[in-house]
Fold each of these.
Amino acid sequence: MLGWTISGRQSGRESQTEKQFFLRSSQEEFEKLCSLDVLGIKDTDIKESAAIHEEFKKQLTRAESGYYETKLPWKEDHVPLPTNKSLCTARLYSTTKRLERIGRLEEYDKIMREQINMGVIEPVPANQTGETVHYVPHQAVIRDKAETTKMRIVYDCSARANMRSPSLNDCLETGPPLQPLLFDIIARNRMRKFCITGDIQKAFLQIRVHEQDRDALRVLWYNNLQDREVTEYRFTRVIFGATSSPYILGVTLQKHIEDYEQESSNSGGNKEEDVATFKVESTKILSEGGFNLHKWHSNIDHLSAENDKQEEDTYTTRSVGNTSSNETKILGIPWNKEEDTLTISFESCQKSSEPITKRKMLADINSIFDILGWSSPVTITAKLIFSEVCLLQLHWDEEIPDEIQRKWQMWINSLQRTPTITVPRCVFTDNPTHYEMHGFADASKTAVCAAIYIVAYENSTPVSQNLLTAKARIAPKHMSIPRLELIAAHTLAKLQNNVSKALANFPITACHSWVDSTTVLYWLSNRGEWSTFVRNRVKKIGELTESKWRYVPTAENPSDLGTRGSAPNRLGTMWFQGPNWLSSEGDRPVHTRDFRVRRSQVREKVNKEKRSDASTGRCNSE
């Protein structure tokens, strides 16, 4: 899921098409940063694909030996799929020449022979068994610095015979996303004292493809390297590279564990014996479906499998890692098992000295992998600089102006001084009995931010407080501060709603929401007449959360950092732990619900918003 994704070739007319596609996609991704609809956590809705999902689930069959077999999820009325044999033959010869030139052909052949011997691919029978015959080209991807697998064979299911013909991926359904959101998994993981992770060995290859669809997964290789007679094979297992493969794996695992009260193999608990039991039971349950769990990692020493350095790599090694005895990864996030900390690295932004362009800036921003937003005050600075470049409408490979280059270099320099930030994997210490959730929201003219903190209690005594997650987004242009503050509150409500769902099984006894805008509190207290913009968002906030909305001075609002930006070395305890008074209810700011002191000022702000809305007609609807 977080490993390699490679498709298409980098030559000829196809590469130009792919280049244009990625440019459009990158621009669309940046525009999402400024969209009101994604300022919080985007809602997931799989209703549209429900019918496809149920139909596909029914056709899954299980053999007596335990393994599952499936047909491919073809799109209805898809364009006829060409054989692609001529293209695959040409790609076979070009791949062979390249491998001979670098002296790696025998290594490639060895991998193909292993797949044949294991039954992953089989010789094509004399009579085809399905209606569709299609050939999939393949090529080598080499990583000499990898610990185990130096070479991988990548199957290009996106290859087209010509610009007008569909690819295999064009004809397959991707299906609804069945894997739990990474956000939810990491959030739950931080609420468990002990953690254990495992990897399904060659997960795709454990699911058989029905004979009816195997001819659509044909490949070409040689009978041997001496004669080099081109021989036709076909996949008997789910192919790595098809757009439908992650869905097929997800629905198969879902169907298999329906009868078991188990979660995914990225789990944990607050008792060592519970974690040990989970490892044993999950291994047994998945093995009954033909799935082998291996590469275990845990902050409990005896539950880690750290002595199998020679164990072959899998497609998801980059998700769970295997770098040293103490260093590994949880879904792509570096995890020090001994110190039980998670790290966000900025080192990828500092590798190149090439000219600074829009493409490089966006690549640097996207290279910071931070699912829960712990580095939001750092990354928002880069996003704001990038937004300045976008307004200039420069080409993607055009060098940016000197003034913006200086700003960007200052940001890079701040990362060089502090190349990583580290947070505790678990947000609490000791053995808490219940938790409180505290959310903070703030806005400036340039950005909005929401941050959520967890306060852990042992009976009535607070034992720890830590940042759980945060989101910082570029603010919409030409909007008043009160409205931006309301957008920030809406962002927080969506974030709290998402976190509440993810942590539904944890004893969270109270939820508080803090803002430093009295105007927003006035709106949320159902006072006055509102514009459509305000009314819609107040309604949604009420639907999303039942949290108590309270006032916090700006100086004590940690989300303020996410609206202004910060260097990594200036992220202190206010950001990572929140204000000290979170753990002391008596010291918390008084809730200014009645607005006795500043009621007239608040009313004037509200009236100004109403006048602005009436005169401009701006943002009157969703």
Note: The chain is about 35% helix and 20% strand.
Amino acid sequence: MTINERLSAMLVTTVAKHGFDATIERLTASGGDLDSTPPAWATVATVKAVWDNPRRLYKGVNDGAPSSMVQRHMTIAYRADLKDPSSGVGLRVLVDGVYCNVISIGQIGEHVGLRLLLDMGTEA
């Protein structure tokens, strides 16, 4: 059994056991600066996903003031339309009523899965 076949089998088993629904949306039109028009989002897909790690709190400084950002990795099955790291620009994920922006996308194996790094929010 190749590594790719092993990864595929593990992802299928893990998603079946621990998976939850996540809706991926893409920004289709940015909001207006002067007229308060909200941005427009279109659903790309609703997929089964699993969390890769617990939430990680990163502390730092933002404009001279202390701040923190929470990040988390999510794994989904491979999608050709999201395989490039640049395809994560303008994406957000809806999980349990909370929107999280996609920071980056990494590929797992050859056509096995995708690992999304999500911005879970900030605190000032």
Note: Residues 3-123 form a domain with the Thrombin, subunit H fold (CATH 2.40.10).
Amino acid sequence: MEWVTRLFPGVLLIVSSTDSFRTASNVALNKPAWQYTKDPGAGFWSASNAVDGDKTCSPVDSHHFTLSGCGNPPWWQVDLGAVYNISRIKVYGRRDNVSRNYWQGTPFNVSVGNSSSSLRSIYTGNPNEGDYIYFIRIDPPDSVQIIDIRKMDRTYMTICEVKVFDQVCRRGYFGYGCLHENHCEGDYDMATGHCPICQKGWQKEACQQPCAAGEFGSNCSSHCGYCHDGNTTCDSYNGHCQAGCAAGYKGEFCKTKCSPGEYGPGCTSHCGQCSGENTTCNVHSGHCPSGCAPGYKGDFCSTPINVALSKPTLQYTVSNSKTEIWPSSNAVDGDKTCSPVDSSHFTLSEYGDPPWWQVDLGAVHNISRIRVYGRKDNVTKQLEGFTVHLSTSNILNNNGNILPLTTLPYPANGTFDFNLSTPIEARFCRLSLPKPHSVDLPTYPILLCEVEIFELIQGRDNNIIIPGHTIVTPSISSQYNACDASKSIDGSILHDLSSDDFVLCQRCSVALGVKHPWLQLDLSEVTAVGYIRLYGRDNGIRTGQSSNLTIFANNISITDAANLSDWTELGDIIKSDNINGVVLDLKSQRLFRYLTITTKYASTVMTICEVKLYTRDCSDGHFGEKCSDQCHCKHDPRCNGVTGECSPPGCAAGWTGEACNILCSPGKYGENCKNRCYCYANKECKKDTGFCPNERCARGWQSPSCNIPEHSDKVATEPATAIVIRVMCSMDTVQMVYVPQGG
């Protein structure tokens, strides 16, 4: 459809199908009206029908229309009762095209004045056949009391309705014909649409432009928080995230960071057992940045570590025979399916007095929970009524270390779960069946599916290397006896300096070499380290097997780069401490995958009992080796200490790249450098806002960011549909052609 307006001196006629004027401003409603009454022909229909407010205009009868006499010319008038500052007149005619003589298709004239004797013509025209609603704009507004409409030839005249408006547009519209819509909060300029405060969800001078993605509120002055489906998806009116908050954020606007110990969308999940004094996990993923606290494992550090898993086991055999019916190790293999009852899933001792099963945890643990899995069928005699013995030594056959646990009745699912109100220190755990009531009857053999033992950790250590959890591969130049490299990261230290070789090799790694024995830790990936704590065999002396050591770092293994002169030297450990360890402060964050410890001077032996690594956060906006690189994040100034990656929503305006450390290239600006600017003399615009120096744009460009062509089509918002306006001027007329978008 094409709408056409024609401009005459002081008057604009607009043919349209919408009413954007203020409805309360029709000053002709129910005012006195009259018409030409000579030569009635078929009779008259009341002149007041044109000011009764009925715009249905159907059917064409005496209830909906006026009908004048046959005049030369016929006319119709209304007296507004007072002088009004009139800006628009709206006339409703017939819709049916039954006869050109009944308004459609014939010339007509509109005149106004303060009396019937002082009328002046403001419009003369010949509307297109089929148009039945006519807007007549008086610009500038004119003082009017009488409106006169008449045909320009001898005929009858019918009118459905006439509405006369003062100069105020209906609320929410402005400009010529009140065709332009705005969204102002409070008063605004009816000519330009300018208003100081926009309604929520709208912006710019005339409040015609919706908030950009990621903005909301009055004048779009607020920014979306961290929404679950992206930081540009909040409601433009109230800022609420329709899909809830993103991981790591909570609150009405999803701008409040999770409190310590919370994570996930809306901060509704709680952290597991992270290492160190701080229980805070990654607020987005729930992962613990420094690994799990001792005793816990899993992606979220919420799974207690079973300290019995894969540990040495024994069970009762006749005459202490080493041949087992079903292996005792089946109870610590981690398989809890417990089906079928066979030699792959269960242990089975011989008949005994009493029969028993035992596990050696390898070290003393603070036991807080024991879980025993038996048969799930109705055969219960092979575990029913068992007792649990705990001891720090391998002396278990006494009543002093039997736990007061209730093992009757046998649970339907075959699983016993004991939480000890007071943790017990123990290394050995034995399960025994009671003696039979009659001395003439042997006991049943003990049969187990799985035994899990968990410890209570008193205090935490934020060591990056969590024994049994963190993937670290140790290696050694050449080991002494059973003192292998894994002992340097198993969580144990040497308390007794007088220990024999057997105890030493349970607690420490001992490297041998011709001149410089070495121990290497492969951290599996580049890791940020700020401190190193080393536990040795000697206490406070400078001449022992754990003194005068040098620590190196590299991203290549020593087996591929044996020349340590090519490595980065982190520092020296001059003397050893077997209880508290000696800390090497790296002064700043260092990044490496391989850590190598070797003797500073020629030696043939080196003993390392434990190595612990600790993180060191860079200051805000920094990352990388020695925190020497900068990142530029949008909201949270902190970035990943290793990669520099920013948390959502990513880079600050003017920066791009994985680490948000690449400045926008020439001619680019804004978030992710996705916008272009065209400044005068090819000068650079501001990388965050796009503003050009002295606000001077290159030729052909405009707007503060110089990214809109000067002669681009302007987009106006029509009450019924968005349209593109093209303006064509001549000496005495202006024609505005309204073309629907896409046309």
Note: Helices lie at 501-507.
